[in-house]
Amino acid sequence: MVILGFVDQAHDNLVCCAIDIDIDRSNGNYFVEEEDIFAMVYHEMDTLIGRPISDINAEAMEHKINNHSSVYNAEVFKTLNGTLRIEVQQRTPVVRLFAKNGDTYYIDSLGYIMPASKRYTARVLVANGYIFDSFVRVNAHNVKALGDSLARKLIVDDVFKLVEFIRQNSFWDAQIEQLYVNKELEFELIPRVGNHRIVFGDASSIAQKFNKLKIFYEKGLSKTGWNEYSTINLKFANQVVCTKR
């Protein structure tokens, strides 16, 4: 108890001597910079260096940083040598949407909406066309947890389902670079290899449609060439309907 008393007294006398910010960039993104974290930290307090470490509310800072739209998780803690340590993990965007009203935003790997950044653009799948879901309308939602009634009204739900499947398959992840929503609110896929459009239809039977396409690629296009057809239609059951160029 005497030792703990000395430790408490030493801690009370300890002042903040440094701020150490560690932003995890293992997902390759740069949405969050050190100056962003400093701005949020100093919004809470005018100065930290030289302030008694016990006066710093690490929990409040952590809560504020976690409210940043591009932050997945943040931890703020004080070290025994007087350093304020801030560790930040960024969200991982998987698709960028361009809405009809001019809005552009991302959906991350967990289904959360992320605003686009003026400073950094992630290299992810692009979805455009007849997308009427504005950023304001979808911002409060986790796409993965949308209720059935709301999901039927928002195209972002189907976009996320398609992108999740594509990302989980290395071949399709490398082949598909764009999702286009047509006037019928159905999907057309734009591949990286081959000068054709893939008419996918709605977001039902995703695995079966991609399986048909894979078989057609292997047994059809391998003989005719990748540029033989202008469209490859997967909407019909048990068949692939193509339009010659």
Outline the structure in words.
It is a single chain. With 245 residues, the protein is an alpha/beta fold. The protein folds into two domains: 2-90, Roll (Ubiquitin-like (UB roll)); 93-244, Cell division protein FtsQ/DivIB (Rossmann fold, 3-Layer(aba) Sandwich). It has eight helices and twelve strands. α2 packs across α3 (58-66). The longest helix is centred in the last third of the chain and has 19 residues, at 206-224. It is elongated.
Topology of this structure?
Blueprint lengths: L1 H12 L4 E7 L9 H11 L13 H9 L4 E8 L4 E8 L2 E6 L5 E5 L4 E3 L9 E5 L5 H4 L9 H4 L3 H13 L2 H6 E6 L5 E5 L5 E5 L4 H19 L4 E5 L7 E4 L1
Parallel strand pairs: 1-3, 4-7, 7-8, 10-11
Antiparallel strand pairs: 2-3, 4-5, 5-6, 8-9, 9-10, 11-12
Helix pairs in contact: 2-3
In CATH, the architecture of the largest domain is 3-Layer(aba) Sandwich
Q: Give a short account of the largest sheet.
A: 9 strands, mixed
What average pLDDT do the residues reach? 88
* Broad shape: elongated
How many H/I helical runs? Answer: 8
Rounded to an integer, what's the Rg over CA atoms? 25 Å
Topology as a string of helices (H) and strands (E) = HEHHEEEEEEHHHHEEEHEE
In whole angstroms, the N-to-C terminal distance is 84 Å
Order the strands across the largest sheet as they lie in space: 6-5-4-7-8-9-10-11-12
Query: What is the β-strand count?
Result: 12
Alpha-beta classification: alpha/beta
**Total number of domains:** 2
Low-confidence stretches: 2-9
CATH topology of the largest domain: Rossmann fold
Report the β-strand fraction as a percent range: 25-35%
